[in-house]
Design a protein that fits this description.
Elements: E1 3-7, E2 10-13, E3 18-25, E4 30-39, E5 46-52, E6 59-60, E7 68-73, E8 78-83, E9 92-101, E10 109-112, E11 116-121
Length: 122
Amino acid sequence: QVQVVESGGGLVEAGDSLRLSCVTSGRFFSLYHMAWFRQAPGKERELVARIPWNGGTLYYVDSVKGRFTISKDSAKNTVYLQMNSLKPDDTAVYYCVAGVVPTGRGRQYDLWGQGTQVTVSS
């Protein structure tokens, strides 16, 4: 069974930094991307950052460009989201998504983690 588990959320003050981590574990052939979404209270879930697993262009939503950095450790099937200069508007539940290529003949699919809360106080 493939699992996606996030960690690293918490309560910080505006201007602080946090690093989120997300590990994909279990039995699968490979990954094709990993991404971070977030959902704030009363708002729609939005894609924050995405990293292709085998090279390609990184994606960032405009509101985090220059402040957040997505990176990966392929050997550990882990993706990170370094968040600097945090703002109260960054407060949300952050979800990790792993694009999984299964073993055998199954189609690739996106698997979501449970989410981790990030709260930024002013």
